[in-house]
Amino acid sequence: MTVRQKILIVEDEIILQDVYKLVLGAHGYDVSVASNGLEGLNVLQETKPALVLLDIFMPVMDGREFLRNFDKANYPQTKIVVYTNLSDSKTKAEMLGLGADNFVLKSSMAPHDLTALVDTMLAI
Amino acid sequence: MIHMSQPRRANLALPRSPTKSDEFLLLDNEMSRLIQRFDWSQTRLGPLGGWPQSLRTAVGIMLQSPVPIVMLWGLDGIMLYNDAYSIFAGARHPSLLGSKVIEGWPEVADFNRNVMAHGLAGKTLSYNNQQLTLFRNNRPEEVWMNLNYSPVIDESGKPAGIFAIVIETTQQVLAEARQKAAEDELKAEHERMHSLLMQAPAVIAVLRGPEHVYDLANPQYMEMIGNRAIIGKPIREALPELAGQGIYEILDEVYHTGKPYVGNEVFLTIDRNDKADAGDMYLNFIYQPSRDGAGKVDGILVHAVDVTEQVLARQRLIETAKEQQHLVSLTNQRNELIKLNTAKDEFISLASHQLRTPATAVKQYISLLLSGYAGPVNDDQTKFLQTAYDSNERQLNIISDLLKTAQLDSSRYLLQKDLQPLRILLREVIDDLRPTVELKQQTIVFHNNLVTTTRVMIDSNEMKLVFANLIENASKYSHPGTMILICLDKKDGSLEVRVVDQGVGLEGKDAKRIFDKFTRVNNELSDTVTGTGLGLYWVKKIIKLHQGTIKVESILGKGSTFTVRIPLP
Q1: Please, what is the Cα angle at B143 between B142 and B149, to 5 degrees?
Q2: Separation CA B166–CA B391 (nearest Å)
Q3: Is residue B552 within 8 Å of B561, Cβ to Cβ?
Q4: How many of the other CB atoms lie within 10 Å of CB of B194?
Q5: Mapped to the 3 state alphabet, what secondary structure does B22-56 carry?
Q6: How far apart are CA B193 and CA B191, in angstroms?
Q7: What's the whole-model pTM score?
Q8: Rama region for A89: left / alpha / beta (φ>0; ψ in -120 to 50; rest)
Q9: Which of B553, B422, B560 is nearest to B478 (CA)?
């Protein structure tokens, strides 16, 4: 059995946090969660995940600040998917500019879409 | 230098006692005595005793007269005169007595020769205010005299001498001359004033009397009133259009009170019969009462300046300032609107985000239930859950559509344009939609009529949305077995795309409103078609953002043709 890949979910909405953790966990990933950017940075340091699902709107520290504080050099293996319900092209361009690897509209994703997305991202 | 005769010394050495023949000399005055004592034997007159009666009578009359009289007797014009004349003679008296007139008054010898000639010829001479220069006081004197010369007839019936009444009028003449000079000066002053008024750059008129009769009006005034004949007319008759404009009343008051009136930027309408303009003008003016010698008001001096240009210029300036103010306020309003718009955009963006979040959760959990994650689901449960899922999806779609609409409505929305061959973009859209269309047993045909690759400046994402919408609509509102034709052409400096269907078509009234927000047309297929009624609104918006055009031609029951034109770069 291979080592389960680690995924960090940075999401302030607990019911979403729960369902994503449930779905991805059931799909075989090692999932940890954080409720804002600051928590996310701490967990990131601890777990060094293969992928971060990053919400934008969050209290304490939002997704933008997280990306600004995220030092890619320290986590060369970590992919970041901005996973948000903001859909405007301006925000998308901004987040990709800050170093995100992907930008996905949360509301368009059913659980099986999410697992497919993560599988694809980590297979690359 | 006038030659002066040697004054003859009166010979008073041999006083004689009066004789009977000297009775005419017994008067108590100087000249009677001098004539009596004079030695007339030295003259042509001869001794007193031998004088003819005519001479005696004339001398007698002369000596009694208070009027200056001189007698010129005989061919020599020997002078005899009375007391009054002696005063006139000045320093020449008394030596003048008994002298020849030509020698006694050498400076006017020619004048006296003429007098002698006329008198001895029996003629009278008369001069009024005759001017002569006399040296009677050893200096030249301008004198004026009234002179009357009458011949005196002697016993032989012939003129023997001349009886001359000499009244000096120098004082009167000088007084008259002074008066005349004063009058002339006054007249000249008046003329100077007149010419000043006539030449002044201002508008000037002089009104006389209580009826304000025009006495004078300078060319500027005449020009102002359209060169009508006003001189000699009262103002109410001369300028009848001023009735009701308050001017007559002001003039009446100035005349009666004697107080000047100053009008500032007074608006008047004057008939300028030779002018094309209406004669509306603004005047600054002064009505200055003028007074006669007794200080009573006898007229009014009108002094006016036409300030129409200045007033209009100022009004224009004020208008401009107002416009500028308006412009500033418009700019402020615009900035305010931009702020509001920005706030609205942000609000919509946030609201969409907030609305999506719970719907996203619903979607996740229903999905889990449907996938059997929480245990087996029977057919009815699956059906109900699927309905809930679909409904949630529709809500998410509506949120996305509203967000898209808000983006396109936003003044800040910017297209990401680059040069693209429209043919390739169309091909992509058609290929994407082909499975859906064919599922409805419809065919889709693309006619590219361009011979070369032609690029246009477009935002490819938005333009895909345009053609996807048009083709989806064509499919949705057509029955199975029909064809959808897409033609690409070049027309009038644009690329033209026509999307032609054989669908249900549109009524005329619907064709006009299908590009409006939230328009859904009722037709035989409406019930089978879902949508928010925003698709064609976006299409039109996006085409407009590309400076393009879109129009629809449709026949009910036969089909519709949507024609899009995108300008070539």
Answers
A1: 140
A2: 147
A3: yes
A4: 14
A5: HHHHCCCCHHHHHHHHCCHHHCCCCCHHHCCHHHH
A6: 5
A7: 0.50
A8: alpha
A9: B560
3-state secondary structure string across chain A? CCCCCEEEEECCCHHHHHHHHHHHHHCCCEEEEECCHHHHHHHHHHHCCCEEEECCCCCCCCHHHHHHHCCHHHCCCCEEEEEECCCCHHHHHHHHHCCCCEEEEHHHCCHHHHHHHHHHHHHC
Note whether ipTM > 0.95 here.
no
Check whether B121 has a pLDDT greater than 70: yes
Contacts of B381 (CB under 8 A, 6+ apart): B369
Q: Are B478 and B504 in contact (CB under 8 A)?
A: yes
Burial class (CB in 10 A: 0-12, 13-18, 19+), B288: middle
**Each residue's pLDDT tens digit, B38-92:** 888 888 888 888 888 888 888 988 999 899 999 999 988 999 999 999 988 888 8
Rounded distance between C-alpha atoms, residue B203 and residue B212, angstroms: 16
> Does the beta carbon of B365 lie under 8 angstroms from any beta carbon of chain A?
yes
Interface check A90 vs B, CB under 8 A: no
pLDDT exceeds 60 at position B164: yes
Of A19, A26, A87, the CB nearest to B365: A19
User: What are A42's two structure tokens?
Assistant: 């701490």
Assess contact for B166 and B63: CB atoms under 8 A.
no
Other Cβ atoms within 10 Å of B477 Cβ, number: 22
Query: What 3-state DSSP class applies to B360?
Result: helix
- State the nearest Cα–Cα gap between A106 and chain B, in angstroms: 7
Looking at residue B9, its pLDDT comes to 46
Angle between helices B379-409 and B535-545 (to 10 degrees): 30
For B412, the closest chain A residue by CA position comes to: A90
CB B447 within 8 A of CB B426: no
- In this complex, the residue of B356, B368, B407 whose CB is nearest that of residue A106 is B356
CB crowding B85-120: b at 16 or more within 10 Å, else e: bbebbeebbbbbbbbbbbbbbebbbeebeebbebbb
Q: How confident is the model at residue A89 (pLDDT cuts 50, 70, 90)?
A: confident
Cis peptide preceding B94, ω within 30 of 0: yes
